[in-house]
Amino acid sequence: MDDARLRTYLNDHLAGGTAAVWTLVRLAADHRGDELGRPLADLRDQVAMDRDTLRDLLGRLPSGESLWKRALGAVGAVAAWGRNLLPDQRPTPAEELEALAIGVWGKRLLWGTMTRVAERDPRFADVDVRELTERAEEQEKELLRLRDRFLDEAFRLTPATSA
Q1: Are 44 and 97 in contact, with CB atoms under 8 Å apart?
Q2: Cα 59 to Cα 20: distance, rounded to the nearest angstrom
Q3: CA count, 13 A, side-chain hemisphere, 73
Q4: Which string of DSSP letters, residue by residue, matches 66-85?
Q5: What separation, in Å, do the N-terminal and C-terminal C-alpha atoms of the chain show?
Q6: pLDDT tens-digit series, residues 101-159
Q7: pLDDT in tens, 68-103
Q8: Measuring CA to CA, which residue among 82, 98, 83 is closest to residue 151?
Q9: Which residues make Cβ contacts (< 8 Å) with residue 44, sequence separation at least 6?
């Protein structure tokens, strides 16, 4: 097993997870009190749990978590947050939810990789990758469902008319 390569791979996903959590923190706060606040807060909590799982996996490897990659994840989250300060550059919630869904798709690939790793490396044999994969699939469905709710508003689409 190439521990250094696996460490880099997991740290890359951890950086993405950090940015995702920060994005969901902001979105959940923006929608506190409306019908989207609770589902966004639930997603925030789940993604934070997945990030903690990644930290646990990294702790099983020599050298563990990269502070450099952690900083990159934070910088990415801050840059995305900063974009929200510019009215003409601010992403719509639909765009942010779409980006998060793409990230969750990547997380599903991560858990597929960890399935293979766990089959070959006893340090990871106890990881319930099936549960993690199922949770990621549900997260992706929920993000896409929420994204659809914002599309008409995002692009100022008028209701479709029948011909």
Answers
A1: no
A2: 21
A3: 22
A4: -HHHHHHHHHHHHHHHHHTT
A5: 61
A6: 999 999 999 999 999 999 999 999 999 999 999 999 999 999 999 998 888 777 777 76
A7: 666 565 566 655 556 556 667 778 888 889 999 999
A8: 98
A9: 21, 24, 25, 27, 28
